[in-house]
């Protein structure tokens, strides 16, 4: 079950990253975060009310609050990086945050088998190569890489925090709701501060109409991201965190494939090889 949930996480995060990257090229990143996460609150609030998740409230929800604060900063940095640089370069570097939950798992005493250690190494190398990252270039490219590395650490911390925020499925719904409420509070506050400093919350070309027309896409990005967090938490609860984290980090392969399909971004040889290694690593992790 760990492998299944973790691979579902990769699929959902990959699609969310692709959609978020596209939207941020037309709409300010803060607005994308605030609106997309507000959409998830409506859905999660309904689910929590129906399942009685409020009864699962407890001190562990502080982990969800922490995930919400860190996750907002990570999302803003990542979406901005996706808007500045090629998705096939930014997304794989963002997955390096997998080092955080893997390290947590090892500190807590998890010891993957030989095949799984091999799978972790192969998968991480594959994910990086899948983007064919270029560390040289214009200042905007260096800025995109710096933002991506900030996002990577943040995403890794979110993975570690959200896996500790609940022990039951209904509790997980509540934890995700708390996380998203925190996302909106932090992101909305940053957006308000930006507007007060003279910035704009709306696109310069088209204004509010662009945001309204993009609502379905914004809702999809938010729901895919929250579903990915949920499936990762389940993966971490059903098996080793080290395995769940690495399998969940394969999402750049999905982002690269989506960019190829919808934006006609061509995969270079190194990217195709990286995708193959990432899949091989997934197989080793699932069977080790």
UniProtKB/TrEMBL annotation:
<feature type="transmembrane region" description="Helical">
    <location>
        <begin position="169"/>
        <end position="195"/>
    </location>
</feature>
<dbReference type="GO" id="GO:0016020">
    <property type="term" value="C:membrane"/>
</dbReference>
<protein>
    <submittedName>
        <fullName>Membrane protein</fullName>
    </submittedName>
</protein>
<feature type="transmembrane region" description="Helical">
    <location>
        <begin position="144"/>
        <end position="163"/>
    </location>
</feature>
<feature type="transmembrane region" description="Helical">
    <location>
        <begin position="114"/>
        <end position="132"/>
    </location>
</feature>
<keyword id="KW-0812">Transmembrane</keyword>
<dbReference type="Pfam" id="PF00892">
    <property type="entry name" value="EamA"/>
</dbReference>
<feature type="domain" description="EamA">
    <location>
        <begin position="3"/>
        <end position="130"/>
    </location>
</feature>
<feature type="transmembrane region" description="Helical">
    <location>
        <begin position="61"/>
        <end position="82"/>
    </location>
</feature>
<dbReference type="InterPro" id="IPR000620">
    <property type="entry name" value="EamA_dom"/>
</dbReference>
<dbReference type="InterPro" id="IPR037185">
    <property type="entry name" value="EmrE-like"/>
</dbReference>
<comment type="similarity">
    <text>Belongs to the EamA transporter family.</text>
</comment>
<feature type="transmembrane region" description="Helical">
    <location>
        <begin position="240"/>
        <end position="258"/>
    </location>
</feature>
<feature type="transmembrane region" description="Helical">
    <location>
        <begin position="207"/>
        <end position="228"/>
    </location>
</feature>
<feature type="domain" description="EamA">
    <location>
        <begin position="144"/>
        <end position="286"/>
    </location>
</feature>
<keyword id="KW-0472">Membrane</keyword>
<feature type="transmembrane region" description="Helical">
    <location>
        <begin position="89"/>
        <end position="108"/>
    </location>
</feature>
<feature type="transmembrane region" description="Helical">
    <location>
        <begin position="270"/>
        <end position="287"/>
    </location>
</feature>
<keyword id="KW-1133">Transmembrane helix</keyword>
